[in-house]
Amino acid sequence: MVKQHRLIRTLVCLGCLTLSSSGIAENSMLAEFEKSKAAIFKDFNEYKRQYAEQYQQAINGLSDTWLEPVLTSQKSWVQYSADKRMRTIVDFEHQTLVIEAIQQKGFDPKSVKKQVYQELNKLTLQTTIQSLLKDPVLGIQAKGSKDKYLFKKMLADFPVSKVAKSLLIQVNNYPDNQHLITFTGVIPKAYFEKQASIYQSEIKTYSDKWSVNPRLVHAIIQTESSFNPLAQSHIPAYGLMQIVPSSAGRDVTKFLYGKEKVLSSTELFNAEKNINYGCAYLHLLMNRYLKDVNNPDVKELLAIAAYNGGVGSVAKHFSGTKSLSALASSVNALTAEQVYTSLSQSFPYAETRNYVKKVVSRKA
Fold first, then answer.
1. Residue 176 to residues 102, 214, 229, 355, 362, Cα–Cα distance (Å)
2. Helix H or strand E encompassing 130
3. Around Cβ 289, how many Cβ atoms within 10 Å?
4. DSSP H or E stretch at residue 42
5. Which residue range(s) make up the domain with 210?
6. Alpha carbon of 240 to those of 65, 101, 148, 203, 232: distances in Å?
7. How many domains are there within the chain?
8. Which of 163, 191, 219 is the last residue of a domain?
9. Same domain as 279, residue 217
């Protein structure tokens, strides 16, 4: 009997040791996970801080020459000459081109016009990587890139002669006894339609891969960037589908690669990768976050709003909480028309209300 008790005590102690070592291992794994998560957050925060710093440095550097510095945005691509006294602005949304030059009084109009035509001709030859390297905010990140996709011409077959014929010239006084000469031209709509068609192969490939409606992907690109290949915003977000590295980028990389990764701006300016990541994110929205929503049309509407305003905000709008199950319960009692009306008229953010309207209209 004594031996039995000793054996039981031994087994109990061994069990305690096993449980104890298991608990230690679990705690160790948890601690490692938290450490890794903290490091990732630090990387994302540092990434955002660097972008904000580079952006402000670029603005400050241009302010020495320009009263109103302008940088590349979601739907406009801006490039400055080496001396910063001339800039070219291609507006993908409004389909216009503006070239502005700061000149001393008594300038030679013929010389300036010659410079403008030279800038126009450069547009059709310049590759995406060449354009990116000249970007005062992100150029430094693109140095050394060997991404073959970026070596394609950014504005291939740009209609130089047609735009040149449409140029209107305006001369205004500028500080320090100077003039601002502005050349404004119209870019044919057919050119932008052709530019958009360049990406149809990628749109079809990745919308098929991720089971997303290709018309939805096209409409989102049109709304996000108007097919500006170097689209960027202060958030920061990059590329055709305006991927935000610290939100959609985190979700997508964890889904695709098993762990979160900080996507660089240069990687996101690769249109093929950008469309892949954007389609994968739409897939995640509809098949993970919104999986309990029954009506596919409702699910798509919610995904559109979430792509812009965040899935948590969408959940809170319909259910009063950020619970995804509560969101599903709320919208499963509504028709697609009711959900669209709510998102386009009552959603708390005007940007998202307008975004939903535009995407739905362009998808139709």
1. 11, 53, 36, 43, 47
2. helix 128-133
3. 21
4. helix 2-63
5. 199-363
6. 30, 29, 17, 11, 9
7. 2
8. 191
9. yes
What's the pTM value of the predicted model, to 2 decimals?
0.87
Asked whether residue 66 is assigned to any structural domain, the reply reads: no
What does the block give as tokens for 53? 């710093």
Question: Does the residue 45 lie in any domain?
Answer: no
**175 and 289 both lie in a single domain:** no
Type of residue at 36: S
- 299/223 Cα distance (integer angstroms): 19
pLDDT tens digits for 155-194?
Answer: 989 999 999 999 999 999 999 999 999 999 999 999 999 9
CATH of the domain at 280: 1.10.530.10
CB-CB contact of 264 with 284 (8 Å): no
Residues in Cβ contact with 122 at an 8 Å cutoff, skipping those fewer than 6 apart = none
**Given 191, 223, 238, which residue is the final one in a domain?**
191
C-alpha radius of gyration, the chain, whole number: 27
**What's the confidence (pLDDT) of residue 204?**
98
Asked whether the beta carbons of 126 and 153 are under 8 A apart, the reply is: yes
68: left (phi over 0), alpha (psi -120 to 50) or beta: beta
Cα–Cα nearest to 334, from 305, 364, 301, 289: 301
